[in-house]
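Kindly review both lines to help learners:
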Amino acid sequence: MNSNQLYVKKLQEALDRVDFSRVDTLIDWLQDARLNGNQVFLMGNGGSASTATHFVCDLAKATRCPGWPSFRVIGLADNMAIFSAYANDEGYENVFANQLANFVKPQDIVIAISGSGNSMNVVRAIDLAKSCGARTVGMTGFDGGKVGQKVDLNVHIPCSQMEIVEDIHLMMEHMVSYALRQITMTGSVEIEESDLVKAELPAPVYKPAVHHSIQGTVIPVVNDPVALLTNLSSEMAEQFDLHGLLVRAMQITLTFVRASSGTIIVLNEDGNVVDGALALGGQVVEHPIQRLVEIYSQGLAGWVVQHREAALIDSTLDDPRWLQREWEDQQKDSRSAISVPLMTPERVVGVVTLVHPEPGHFRMEDMALLVAVSQMISYSFKVGGVVDENLGS
């Protein structure tokens, strides 16, 4: 067996010992960070610094998708000016911790990539991150070292050969980035049909359709997202005026995700509110345009348009982007909300927001569905000439 064959053999043996369920957990944590606007920090030394930089690039660029929030990701080994200043003036062991101290917040994610797990600058940064309430992740090798003992999640490569550890770390980085990109396109990580057969998963079971009446219109409630989008597409094809399209889209989407209220707001080229649909208590209601202007100018919808990013809020009482309004019955209990921009290739043309009376109601699947609905509405605007004919300039 030559050296190349021996190397591949050791690589495969190491892969066979890796607990890849921890990679799945890291994907979930990063997706939560994306949806909630938390920051992600990465660091490492030497080859691990290169992997950290690669990870930053892939999270920032390769996972982007119109309507989805972008990752707020920072590489702590990438700014050589600040890195060398801290190393020269305050010690190499502080180069990461001192950078983190300026930015890290509770629920942010701090990822330390270290083959040995014992690099002091990485260990100190993990200690600081934990003291600030951040989630800490180690990507380690050998026996995991001090980093493996301290972090909340240790993605460990049980191997004592550094080259192989670094190989697998880079592979894992690509696995994570690929999975996160798949979520933006499908709402879930792509699974091959053969994998479903192997897992012997039961066929999906849909509940019998029920019906709700919204302003005299009977709307079927289906449990299949594909059926929802098909029905919505058919409804939109029959609408030739902007307001009718918005009302039907709000009715169907609101009922499917069982939200209690919501808005669709449409903007002209100057960024002014020109039309929309408003739902309260599960029903689409008539409304003065000024009400939509208030919602857009002071609340979550305006933030979503300004940042061109979707937002998922678990608790409206805890998020400063949410505006509590009088027409919401002065509700003091926390609710959950989800909001997605309506975008054409040229600009943001509006925003869709849904609200549920209980905190934590909306999930990643709801975000994916609402993104699909918003893209369908935006496409209808463009293809039907609605943007030009109804929104003005």
Q: What stands out?
A: Residues 16 and 158 are 10 Å apart (CA to CA). The longest helix spans residues 162-186. The longest strand covers residues 348-356.
